[in-house]
Design goal:
By secondary structure, the chain is an alpha+beta fold. It has one domain. Strands 1-2-3-4-5 form a five-stranded mixed sheet. Strand 1 and strand 2 form a beta hairpin. The model has no long low-confidence stretch (mean pLDDT about 85).
């Protein structure tokens, strides 16, 4: 299994979402919030496409990489789940290191909030990434989907209807 940045993000948010996504149940294409996020990505920094490059390797897809300054720019719509965003970006930086590109920095950008956040990769993070990678593989390889976790972020999740269909039927 190739672990991706999305796996790292979902691992931080919800193991059920991680399992569903990794096992081919993808609800993202139906989500208005995901579509809004893509619009933010595409429209926020139009000049960047000529200056920086989108990089894909080993299952990751970096929004913008400034090779001259060794900076990965990751654009997000909201900072509500910034811990998940940070780990996704740290994983990107880790993959770059595994390909011999050292000294990479990361910047999370929230254009709608006019906010940026620098992200660094520490030795402890590298150890955590190796442990999280194994845990991701364990979660994904489980035969049964993890149970609903009932978190505050559930209502904005693209899997909400899938996870809560039984409860919604009971309300009618």
């Amino acid at each position: 299994m190739i672990v991706t940045g999305i796996h790292f993000n979902y691992y931080q948010l919800c193991h059920r979402k991680l399992w569903l996504f990794a096992n081919g149940i993808n609800m993202e294409q139906e989500s208005d919030l995901v579509y809004e996020g893509k619009l933010v990505h595409e429209s926020s920094y139009p000049q960047r496409t000529s200056k920086y490059e989108e990089v894909e390797m080993d299952g990751i897809k970096v929004d913008y990489y400034d090779a001259k300054s060794k900076v990965i720019h990751e654009i997000k719509k909201s900072n509500k789940v910034d811990n998940a965003h940070e780990w996704q970006l740290k994983y990107y930086m880790y993959v770059f290191e595994q390909h011999g590109i050292s000294g990479v920095k990361g910047i999370l950008e929230y254009p709608l909030l006019r906010k940026t956040q620098e992200v660094l990769l520490t030795d402890i993070d590298r150890e955590d990434i190796m442990a999280i990678t194994e845990d991701i593989k364990n979660v994904v390889s489980q035969e049964a989907c993890p149970p609903v976790a009932k978190k505050g972020i559930c209502k904005n999740c693209s899997y909400f209807d899938f996870c809560y269909i039984n409860e919604m039927e009971g309300e009618e």
